């Protein structure tokens, strides 16, 4: 993730009154292009 994109994300999340997640994950490509992935997360407050 570029610094510019991260800065924009911080601005948008800050304006919405939310804190960014503690873990950001960027997948630029998969080992096998035909693969599909599913991500699941749980938010807690």
Give an account of the 3D structure:
This protein is flat. The protein starts with a helix and ends in a 30-residue tail after the last helix. The chain is mostly helical. It has one helix at 3-15. The model has no long low-confidence stretch (mean pLDDT 81). The chain is 29% helix and 0% strand. It is built from 1 helix and no strands.
Question: How many helical stretches?
Answer: 1
Q: How much helicity do the residues have?
A: 25-40%
Low-confidence stretches: none
Please provide the count of β strands: 0
**Ends distance:** 26 Å
- The secondary-structure element order is H
Largest sheet: none
- Give the DSSP E fraction (strand runs of 2 or more residues): under 5%
């Amino acid at each position: 993730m570029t610094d510019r994109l991260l800065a924009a994300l911080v601005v948008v999340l800050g304006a919405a009154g939310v804190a960014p997640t503690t873990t950001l994950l960027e997948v630029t490509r998969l080992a096998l292009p035909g693969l599909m992935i599913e991500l699941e997360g749980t938010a807690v407050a």
